[in-house]
Fold:
Amino acid sequence: MSVIYDRVALIGLGLIASSMFWAIKRAGIAGEVTGFARSDETRAIAREIGLCDRVCESAREACEGADLVVLCVPVCAMGDVAADISPVLKPGATVSDVGSVKRAVIDAVAPHIPDGVHFVPAHPLAGTEQSGPGSGFAELFDNRWCLIVPEPDSDEDAVTRLEAFWKALGSNTERMDADHHDLVLAVTSHTPHLIAYTMVGVADDLRRVTDSEVIKYSAAGFRDFTRIAASDPTMWRDVFLTNKEATLEILGRFTEELFALQRAIRTGDGDHLHEYFTHTRAIRRGIIEAGQDTDAPDFGRAPRGKR
Ligand code: NAP
Structure:
């Protein structure tokens, strides 16, 4: 594949940035990739594992001369990073981000983008519960969506180029308006995470009265909740602080549905429960048909002892 950006700068070197780096190298679409993370420890690990062609001592140093700058830090940190790098951004360069919330990132970053520099926000819908520089892998974005969230006045060439970049990393791309993005993600990602955090919290409370049996006999449903609830606390704190309205809207609807199911259980309304579960099973089938998950038993996990 040919080079899409001569110089790419990744700011923040965690799961997403490290996966981007390995996917960029796999595709051969950048001349040089520079990187910066705020802690000495992360920069040392990055150098040790060969993450980035050049690990810099400041975000400004990493961004100097870059054609594409991607902000890969938690959502609430995006504005400060943008303010810091603003003076060194090259005219004609594109600044993008990978934040899980879009309206708040646009509000925080856009004021710091100088004239002549393009700002094209994006969000790859791919991740794991791991974080840090060692957690990335080149295949993370394969066949996953990357939502591109241009502003109405975004430069079309800059948007098309960023789409080509994400496609080369393995993603399918689609454009979406920021507010719509935040509502869709509240349903598909943010609220489910909050429910998982809650369920694991409840089980932990219960553990004290069940003598650790909750952990010992941990079955598939609960285990999947614990995997999600192991996600990075800083990232998820920022998601709920910045996608407040949409998450509260979806949580309200969730609570109503939960009350209806609670009532069906209390009144022994089996028809209601059966109908509801039949409907949700069809949604799962739709996700598998769309190629967004596997229908292998236990999500394709190897049986015990063969992991
Ligand atoms: P991560 O593995 O925890 O890495 C975060 C990076 O940001 C680290 O290099 C960290 O630096 C740096 N950082 C943290 N707080 C900072 C601050 N206040 N100022 C400057 N730098 C800071 O996170 P990630 O999973 O890659 O997530 C990065 C972004 O991608 C987030 O905006 C998240 O919403 C988005 N995202 C995540 C996922 C996912 O599933 N994880 C999926 C899609 C999008 P140090 O290591 O030096 O502390």
The pocket of NAP is lined by residues 12-17, 37-39, 42, 72-75, 77, 81, 98-100, 124, 127, 131-132, 232, 235 (CB under 6 Å). Strands lie at 5-11, 30-36, 54-55, 68-71, 94-97, 118-119, 122-124, 145-148, 172-175. Residues 81 and 294 are 38 Å apart (CA to CA).
